[in-house]
Design a protein that fits this description.
- This protein has 2 helices and 17 strands.
- By secondary structure, it is mainly β.
- It folds into 2 domains: 123 residues, no CATH class; 123 residues, no CATH class.
- Helix 1 packs antiparallel against helix 2.
């Protein structure tokens, strides 16, 4: 009867082979783990390439137990993440110098966005000879939340409360009552939810003939920008009423902060 020998050291190719099975079964729970162990045993592998991060502060570190001094393109493995990333990050494997972790998507090769490597997740990584590719970025909603004020004919000033977009969006004033929030290629069609409200606990709108009405509109323009407009209707009557653009600084919200929120879905 033939006997499968147990190896104490693995080549990068053997580790990559075991990781291929792991990538397939990673989401299958306990039963997937059992199948992976059976596959690894069939290959004569005694060590699964599933590692836990021991680094932090965007500098991930793992030890394979093999004291690797170099990596081969195609080396793939699963990483149990202990601390999520806050932007660009690296991974150090054994004695190999730290390599960048990248994400490949429709925009090309880029650094991971904040939270795409989330604490507690199992990240699947593959080395391409230059950097590690994160194959399963955490699905997340990107957010921008800010308190907004505006004076005179100046652009709005934002006090940012939260921003997980791919960059810092910029406010500008186009004309009276017309403001634009711009960040290139950040707002794809059908993926953006924009809202605006006052910082009052409650507020009501009551309209009767002869009363003044002012309103705000915050919406997506295109893939690069959102627009905020402030309008004034000086006399609401039973007939048609025309709206006139006015700056926030002269509106009923002149002494208030406005809370703007943008959510961009994957």
């Amino acid at each position: 009867m033939s006997k499968v020998s147990t190896k104490t050291e693995l080549t990068a190719a053997e580790i990559a082979a075991a990781d291929l099975f792991m990538a397939i079964d990673a989401s299958a729970g306990t039963s997937g783990t059992k199948r992976l162990k059976a596959m690894a045993a069939a290959l004569g592998l005694s060590k699964l390439s599933f590692f836990e991060d021991t680094g932090g502060d965007d500098a991930f570190v793992i030890s394979t137990g093999l004291s690797l001094a170099s990596l081969t393109a195609g080396f793939a493995f699963a990483l149990k993440v202990t601390t999520g990333n806050t932007g660009a990050c690296t991974l150090t494997v054994d004695e190999v110098a730290a390599k960048s972790i990248k994400v490949v998507d429709a925009s090309g090769v880029r650094d991971p966005l904040t939270g795409e490597i989330a604490a507690g997740m199992t990240a699947l990584l593959s080395y391409n000879g230059t950097y590690f590719i994160l194959m399963n970025p955490a699905v997340r909603v990107k957010k921008y939340v800010a308190l907004l004020t505006q004076s005179g004919t100046s652009a709005p000033v934002a006090t940012v409360l939260e921003n997980t977009l791919s960059g810092t969006p910029v406010w500008s004033r186009g004309s009276t009552g017309q403001y634009v929030l711009t960040l290139a290629s950040e707002f794809p069609a059908g993926k953006v939810l924009a809202s605006i409200k006052t910082t009052r606990t409650t507020h009501f709108l009551w309209i009767e003939p002869g009363y003044k009405v002012q309103y705000l509109e915050f919406k997506r323009n295109n893939v690069n920008s959102l627009s905020l407009s402030c309008q004034d209707i000086p006399d609401v009557s039973d007939g048609a009423a025309s709206a006139t653009p006015i700056d926030l600084s002269t509106s009923i919200w002149a002494t208030e902060e406005l809370l703007v929120s943008v959510a961009v879905y994957p």
